[in-house]
Amino acid sequence: MRLDGTGLIEHAGELAGLLADTVDAGASIGFLAPLDRAEALAWWRERAAEVAAGRLAVWVAFDGGLPSGTVSLVFPGKANSRHRAEVAKLMVRPQARGRGLGRRLLATAENAAAAAGVTLLHLDTETGSPAEHLYRSAGWTAIGTIPDYAASPDGVLRPTTIYYKRTGPAALTG
Question: Edge-to-edge strands of the sheet including 66-74?
Fold first, then answer.
C-alpha cells in the first residue's frame, strides 16, 4: 500500500516499531542500535512533508494490521535529475524475512518508478549484507564500493556498494 502524508502520520507508530526492529536486527539503514522508538517515530513523522510534496514515495506491506516491510523512492528536485530516483529504506521485519517480501517490495518500487517515467534507479547498501544478494538477483548492477562509508548498527565503519538499474523503455534499449 502506498502511503500519502496523512497515512504516514497515521501509521508512524507502527512504522517506528518496524524501523527499530530492523536496525536492532543488524540492518544498516542509517541508524545505530539500539534505536530508540521515539527517535524512530520522529524520523517517520518528518518524512510526511516529503511525501506530501512528492519528493518521497513510501510503500508499506501489512501483515495482520502491522507493517512487515517498507520501501521508498526519493525523487531529486533538480530539473536535470527528474529521470532518476533513489531506492531507500527497503526493510523487512526480521520475523517476515525469507518469504520474498523484500523482492516484492523492490519490484513495487521499480514498477512505480517506471510508471512515473523514471528511467534510472540507484541505491547503496552495506557491502556483504544479505541485501546485496537481493539486488544482484533482481538485475541491479554494482558500480563500485566505497570503504568506511557508514557505521553499521553496532558502530563499526563498513563499506557500501552502489547499484543502479534502468527501468521503463530505457531498460529495453540501453
Answer: 2-3, 56-63, 66-74, 84-92, 120-126, 157-166, 141-151
Does the pLDDT of residue 172 top 60, yes or no?
no
Question: DSSP assignment, residue 99?
Answer: S
For the entire predicted model, the pTM comes to 0.94
Q: 3-class SS at 96?
A: helix
* The one-letter amino acid at 144: G
Question: What CATH number does residue 115 fall under?
Answer: 3.40.630.30
Is residue 94 exposed (0-12), middle (13-18) or buried (19+ Cβ within 10 Å)?
middle
pLDDT at residue 170, as a whole number: 59
Total domains in the fold of the chain: 1
What is the domain range of residue 166?
2-173
Question: If you average pLDDT over every residue of the chain, what do you get?
Answer: 95
